[in-house]
Amino acid sequence: MIRCRETIQTYWIHTLFIAIILLALLQQWWELWGVRGVATWTFPALIMMLAGPVGLFMIANLLFPDTVRNADFRIYYYEKMGPVLWIGIATVILAVTFRPIVFGNTLLALDNLSSFLIAAILLSLTFTHKSWFHGLMVTVILVGVIGDVLLATFELG
Prior knowledge:
This protein is an all-alpha fold. The protein contains 5 helices and no strands. Helix 1 runs antiparallel to helix 2 and helix 4 packs antiparallel against helix 5.
């Protein structure tokens, strides 16, 4: 987008989605750093651990058309976001169930609240193309991701 900025038409909701994915990738890395000391891993546990970052990578890739030059991101957002939203739902579900399934943590923890909210919002976005609704809900997701980051410990141990 930076390289082609003279020829593209940005769309603020799409841009917010880009920011969300960047923050979510950073937040995933931060959370996964906490399991670096786990001595023994099973292959299914590894797959569960990587599901969040892989899903976010897929979304980051799909947020952009094959050719960015002359792209209209408003049109692209409403025509191509369906699979992105479904991958987002699956990614959130896999990421939020990782610790409960692999380590036996409780699923109904306070720090999972924002993830449940985000999954519900992504699901609701799949059923409408109303720009006001997308604008509101994507903004709520951004606030949820920022809140999730702020609730995390700010020290790496």
